[in-house]
Amino acid sequence: MSDPLVDGAPVAELVTALNSAGQTVATAESLTAGLLAATVAGVPGASAVLRGGLIVYATDLKSRLACVDDNLLRTEGPVAASTAEQLAVGAREQCGADWGVGLTGVAGPDSQDGHPVGTVYLGLAGPQHSEVVRLKLHGDRWTIRLGAVHSAVRELLRCVQSGSVSVK
Asked: pTM of the entire structure?
């Protein structure tokens, strides 16, 4: 039986690319609640590259576990580009990984703090730089969460293959 989380995303390619580069990844996940880490773990050999992850669904845990600045959370909120970037940096630093991925957004059914359903911020922090990608996803909660995970896999693969993250 195949892993439904792995299907449709280049996860095996990501694990191979990380392994070839001798690099590791960690996650700090809000709306995906660990789905990204679980997706990577679905690939045989993932233990060589997946350091771990932080599930920071509650806003206060974004600060306590992933070291997102409290003032930033008060002023910009949990669903923001800067929050996603700090989640990625926090995952990288807290888990001792080469790459950190942060995911925050609104899966629905209701908007949050003025952000419509499907708004997702994906933070990527690597050895050189960090970047944030804003996603606008459509569908129900599951579709949005899975779309965020698959986007994260594709974007991280791009970054690992290019050797660095460009600041956007």
From this structure: 0.95
